[in-house]
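Annex B, item 7. Sequence and structure tokens for protein A, then protein B.
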Amino acid sequence: MARTASLYTDGASRGNPGKAAIAYIIIEDDRILREHGEAIGIATNNEAEYRALIAGLKAAAALDLHEVAVHSDSELMVKQMNGSYAVRSARLLPLYKQATEAKSMFDRVTFTSLPREDPTIQKADALANEALDGKMPSPVESWPGAFVKPIGIVSSPYKMPGDAPRQGRLAPVESRIEIYPEYEGGLSGLLDYDKLFIFCWFDRSRRDQLRVERPGRGGARGVFATRSPDRPNPIGLTLVDLLEINGRILRVRGLDALDGTPILDIKPYEPDLDSQ
């Protein structure tokens, strides 16, 4: 029997573009299956709305749902997904394509615009604002037994997925990593090293990819035999040059993360151990 659920989504941005967050609530037969909010770095309000939709659809697919009724207070996004409006924004077009791909995982998806006064939309809005205020535990999916809390965030010239190089070392571009105040003490002694391993959460990657096409390197491979950012748990590992530490700000070179990417961990590169 086909399982049907309602998906309520919301995106919020303070600055437009500015610090942004997303939220979604999945309900089946009046029972909440999943509710989630997370900060996503810097984005416009429309970008946040689309990213909330994409995240919600992927979460619904992971719950083995077959039909989804999407509800949002973003009339623009709803009309674009229904085909009433064309997507003319260069920033929104890649997100629209991702949303369309996510939509294809279901037998049927409908899109309805609701007023902001709708109680469930208000709840989604509250989740997004809690994430913006730092009250949500993590922008990483926190399933039971798996919990990760970011220690900082990336400021990068790479704004969209297509901007970043295939590997950070191929494009020695400078980025900044802002460490959150509660973790500043962990930076002591880091200047003893000139290279660092940076662990990121690639929050804009697809999590439903198990086979990956490698351009110019033969046919498709299992994702675990590749370095693709699209993977079930999109953790990125990049070796960077440490250029400077100024308070809580690290200036690095060779990081391939997008602007607003959460940082999970930092470890020093030890030539004697890591070059074997």
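Protein B:
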Amino acid sequence: MTDEVAPNGHSEGPRPDEGEESINGWRAFATLGQFLKDDGWYPTQLEEKTIYRVYFAGDNGELRCYAQIRIDLEQFIFYVIAPVKAPEEARGVVGEYINRANYGLRIGNFEIDYSDGEIRYKSSVDFENAILTSALVKNAIYPAVHTMDRYLPGMLGVMYGNKTPVEAIKEIES
């Protein structure tokens, strides 16, 4: 996900039951921004979008992240982008690796874009008819960045042919 092609924060069209944009969604966007500032994330809002870009310095590398509020759907989505893209010839085994990693994860999941090799971790909260709190934001963000950081060495090992997906997952999860 690059800044230019990041989701725009709006749905493709209005929902049938929706007249005006959600006050609750805009309140959530304000809560998200305040949490990110107060927690030391140094957020940058993407131009004209309800998306913040932030970075996380993990043990295994710096991770670019996007925190998005879907105003219309009342959803918070947090993406952690792997620092490297899977080469075309490695996307199959990397896909197997992330599927094995996903099995048993309780919060969020890994995704791979087979067209360009981008790998990301996604966590989300649906807050329709509820208030998005700082605690909910924190509980979505921190598991996501820690999970990407934890699984990144195995992902790189698989990506560059040093380990099989089975070996890499066994090493990380043991």
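Comment on protein B: The radius of gyration is 17 Å.
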